[in-house]
Amino acid sequence: MASVTKLRILIVDDHPLVREGLKRLINEQPDMLVAGEAGDGHEALRYAKEGLPDVALVDIWMPGLDGARVTQMITDACPQVKVIALTRHDDGGFVRKLLEAGATGYVLKQSALSELTRAVRAVAAGQQFVDASIRDAVTASPSDPARPEPAAAPEAALSSQEQTVLRLVAAAYTVQEIATSLSIDLPEVLATRAAAMAKAGLATRTDVVRYAQACGWL
Amino acid sequence: MALRARSAEIRNLRQANADLEDARRAALNLMEDAVESRRQVEELNRQLRVTASSDRFRAALADALRSLGDPVQIKAVACRVLAEHLAADRVSYADIHADGEAAVLPPEFDAAGLMAKLRAGRTIVLPETGSEPSPVQQDSFIAVPLVKDGRLVAALCVSQGASRASAPQAIELVRETAERTWAAVERARAEEALRQSEERLRRLNDALEERIRERTSELAGANASLQLEVRERRAAENEIKALFTRLVSAQEDERRRIARDVHDQLGQQMTAVRINLEELQLRTDIDMPCAESVERTMRLAEELDHSIDFLAWELRPAALDHLGLPAALARLVGGWSERFQVRADYDTVGIDGVRLRSDIEANLYRLAQEALHNVYKHARATHVSVLLERRDHRLVLMVEDNGRGFAIRDASPEAVPSLGLVSMRERAALVGGELTIESTPGFGTTITVRVPTADADATSHGQCDEATHPHC
User: Fold this and answer.
1) pLDDT higher than 80, residue B130
2) Whether A120 and A166 share a structural domain
3) For chain B, is the Cβ count within 10 Å smaller at the N or the C terminus?
4) What is the spatial order of strands in the sheet that B124-126 belongs to?
5) Which helix (H) or strand (E) holds B249?
6) Is the pTM of this model over 0.90?
């Protein structure tokens, strides 16, 4: 690469072995240069302000200031510094948390180095980058599941008793509680629930909850 | 003329004489009538006196007996009053026992002969009226039988030294006295019996009250010791609960620490190893077998990496501390579904923006883990729903499967020890929650944990409290 200006990288990780390994590998890259290292959040913030790196690789789990706070402080203080969260946590929740904190990249330490270098180049170019292995999990977030669209005009097909039973199922009432609150017997609750779920094309209680949310019941 | 006159005179005289005779006769008749009348008056007077005397006697007898309660005394007094009234030598009241023997019959009489008559209900009066006067001095004697319910029960005997005919009034008085004495004795006996039964009743009552007092005191003692036991047991239970709470909390802390060490230390070291391996891979000066060896080592390192992640997650998901229960459950359900190839959905209602108390989060997470484990082991389900809802002042965790279910009577912790329901209930109770199981054969099983929300909320999202979430 003929480029004279290499991407200046700041490595923030409390583990020296990791820092050293990353440094060697990154410096192997023709377009990158490790411009600094930090073992904790405060050091990282100080270096970011002084050294103004292009990209900061931040371990999100460190003693003292955790990665999300460090990310937030760096991007607040120096908006031009792009932050990539570098972590072993593959949970979508962490990804969202870090992206909300201001990170534009999220890379797993378990992935190959090529994933990291791709991320560095992408965020430096102003793009967002999430590790390929968890990209799907982040977009289809399990803790905020995609709500399936209910069947067309679903409520019209349900009797008022079926609707009532479904509302209570969605509201986390047990069959016994539904029977008690509607003054009908257990088999009738089971039959009504089964009929209503079949009509609405629902298989599980979570289906019923999503359906109820789509209907605006909850 | 003179003769005629004389004869007329004679006639007149005769006439006068006849008239006188008539008058005398009439006067005699009148006198007789007067005497008869006087006799009648005297008889009436006598009868009146007798009646008055009898009445006085009756009054005296009634007065004498009224205050007496002892049968023996009643008999003695009755005999004395009668003896005085009749001026009798001896009056005796003899009880006739069931075997027919009289207790006290005057010995000078033929007892056997008298008894036969008395038993026949006949009054004996001696000497018998109309009999020839005995050449020897004979006492007069009256014996009146008392027959009750066809049985001779007593006789009242009166002996008078001088032989005199016994007036019917006297006999009647003796009979009456016998009846009255009998009645008084019966009344006295009844009163005595009543008094005795009242006494027995009183004693029984006293005894009962004493027993009640004893029993009450025993009960009070038992109650006191029971209350003490209840207090001690409650204290022990509280101690156990506190201990269990500390144990569970210590266990979670320990797991958190180990998970963190595994993830941090081991994980970081693995990262370093892999970076080194990557460096080797980038080198151009190594030969083919060497490169292949590096490649194999790389794969091993990756597997090791995954194992480290899995182990750390199993110990305690970092998400529980850093992201909260909803995110941790999402990951749990997703991982479970992937691992056991059973469709599992997870959803939350009313949870957004609310961070729950960390011990509640940890315990609900463990409960969900346990419930899913049960589904995998027992339910043979094809769909599982995990639901976390916060509404109506309660937090509800529901794990519902469409598996084979079971008859709910089998759901007692003792009956299904393998379900681990006992420890699940205890765990729910640790955070003030309640666990219920609902199952119908063929309709799956629902495990529900409810926790009052007043206890559940820690802080709002984003203002994570260091004390409750030490690793935020």
Assistant:
1) no
2) no
3) N
4) B90-95, B151-160, B140-148, B124-126
5) helix B168-261
6) no
